[in-house]
Amino acid sequence: MDLSIIVPAYNSAAYIRKCLLSCCNQDIPMLDYELIVVDDGSTDNTKEIVCNLQKEYSNIKYIYQNNAAQGAARNNGLRQALGKYVWFVDSDDWIKENCLNVIVTTLKENDLNGVTVGHATLYGQELRRWRTFDETKILSGKELLSRSIFLISPTYTIWKRSHLIDNKLFFKEKLFHEDSEICPRLYYVSDRIGFINDILYFVYQNPVSTTRGGNPKRAFDIVTVVRELSRFSVILKEKDILVSLNNYISEAINASLYNTYKFDGEQELKLNKLWYENRDLFKHLLDSNVMKYRFEGLLFIMFPYRISVIYKSLQCLNKTPGGMKRKKV
Question: What is residue 177's predicted lDDT score, i.e. its pLDDT?
Answer without folding.
Answer: 95
